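Researcher: Quick test of sequence recovery. Tokens follow.
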């Protein structure tokens, strides 16, 4: 029975990303027109980096935006983008964790009802779930102190969705090229489910685990 469940998970994985990703991914194409898919993913990330604003009129916003751009650029280094897989994933996801802390800070989260529910929303309508009201050990009380800026918030929102999708595609390609995709399929699917529910922290953790299992078959 367990073997059957694993096989089903692998089939679901290899069919493709959930429609939640595909509908929001924008310019990405998987038609085979680009020789190296991961090179295209890297290009998309570089575009997010180049478009991310750095306001100079508010020191706190300036610092956070500069940090976010640094992490966006760091995650675009070609050392991470193998022809068919994500390389050096431990370093890559360490960078992503720091990046998303800054993006969450810049996205002007507001609680949906009581903040104790752990449900939040951005001005643009992105749902964020934070069990315990924390995101990678950052308490919502700290987040609530961050300035909301009409110029920066849309870019932070766009980066959250786009970078999560790019990361998922990188891990997906890694699993598909692995000799043991079944070991990683369950965590990958958990990651996509977390993305759909707005639990970004859990999504990043499961993407990391899925990558590690795909790369370390023993």
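Model:
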């Amino acid at each position: 029975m367990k073997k059957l469940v694993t096989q089903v998970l692998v089939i679901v994985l290899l069919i493709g990303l959930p429609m939640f990703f595909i509908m929001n991914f924008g310019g990405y194409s998987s038609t085979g027109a680009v020789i190296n898919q991961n090179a295209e993913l890297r290009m998309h990330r570089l575009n997010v980096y180049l478009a991310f604003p750095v306001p100079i009129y508010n020191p706190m916003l300036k610092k956070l935006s500069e940090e976010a751009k640094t992490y966006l650029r760091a995650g675009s280094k070609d050392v991470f983008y193998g022809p068919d897989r994500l390389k050096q994933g431990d370093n890559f996801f360490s960078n992503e964790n720091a990046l998303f802390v800054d993006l969450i800070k810049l996205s002007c989260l507001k609680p949906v009802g009581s903040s104790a529910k752990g449900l939040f929303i951005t001005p643009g309508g992105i749902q964020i779930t934070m069990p315990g009201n924390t995101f990678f050990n950052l308490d919502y009380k700290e987040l609530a102190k961050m300035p909301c800026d009409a110029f920066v918030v849309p870019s932070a929102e766009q980066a959250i969705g786009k970078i999560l999708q790019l990361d998922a595609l990188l891990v997906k390609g890694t699993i598909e090229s692995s000799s043991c995709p079944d070991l990683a399929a369950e965590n990958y699917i958990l990651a996509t489910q977390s993305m759909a529910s707005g639990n970004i922290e859990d999504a990043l953790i499961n993407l990391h685990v899925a990558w590690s299992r795909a790369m370390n078959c023993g």
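The longest helix spans residues 153-176.
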